[in-house]
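Continuing from the previous page...

OK, I double-checked the sequence for Chromate reductase against my notes and this is the correct one:
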Amino acid sequence: MAYNIVTIAGSLRKDSFSLKIANALAKLAPASLKLEVITPAGISFFSQDLEAAPPADWLAFREKLKTSNGVLFVTPEYNRSIPGVLKNAIDVASRPYGKSSFLGKPVGIISNSPGLLGGVSAAKHLQNILPGISGPVLQQPEIYLSSVGDAFDADGNLTKDSLKTVLQQYIDAFAAHVAKNQG
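Thanks. Re-ran it with the corrected sequence; updated structure tokens here:
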């Protein structure tokens, strides 16, 4: 049996590095994981005023998470944090209070950047946000992917061997994390 993992690429850009990385991970995942790659596109803005009658897009997103066996975040860094659309998706899924759709789900965090710092600030912000609304966050290995701008061909295929090696190590560790933390 394969564990179903919702893999959230945190950018809306059609050719985002986060989406390319998420798709590469889906190809590299061991047989024990089935990654469904999504983006925050179509998730309407969170407002507590809507909690009594949540929009259909909120309900669908929450259900997707609730029926998964884990969540993997692949995020770029925008202004030393996560993109606003990703934070909005987290806010939508973590509500109503005490009923987070992430509760009990093993979580992984991958940040990336075409620059040298690899989105480390974005990853650290997710590490601050997720405890208390999610299940256990994979602590090791940490992964901040730098210089990803030349890692893919025109069709979005991963071509950088050094990145492939790092992603393989991470997805294998994440698979073990998910298996260890299933109820």
